[in-house]
Amino acid sequence: MSYESGVTLTTAIRKAKSLSERLQLIQSFGQFLNRFHEKYQMELSICEQGAWLTRQLSVVEEYVKDGLTSGSPQLLRHLELNRISPVQPTIIHGDCSTDNVLVLDGEVHMFIDVSGMTVGDPRYKISNEEIEYFENLYDFFNSILGITLSSSL
Asked: Which residues in the chain come in under a pLDDT of 70?
């Protein structure tokens, strides 16, 4: 383990002094993820690309059988029958959250807590906390301020 300079994105957003600074941090996170996924794309065939999702669904099936998830057999069946199209695999963090990226000088610059990194679908594991955060942020801008977020964010 090593010490790395910076603060988590969660902390940086909380300490931001303006809406503009918060938006810049969020945009920096998106740009960082985009650069990361583009840099580490894996050269795998379409069959191999689909194998990652098959493995994930197998793990989920065991969780459902053992009662270790709130997901139901019906939901699992629905997911199996309605699989999303495979995308180019890349290295994924495995626990991508605002607590697991560091900000230095106002820019997201690295992941921390990388023990779960693996090759997989870059759409995987954006935490429910982040989905909720960004949905709430979007709702806030639209309903309270009457501002529409740029699609470039």
From this structure: 1, 41-50, 124-153
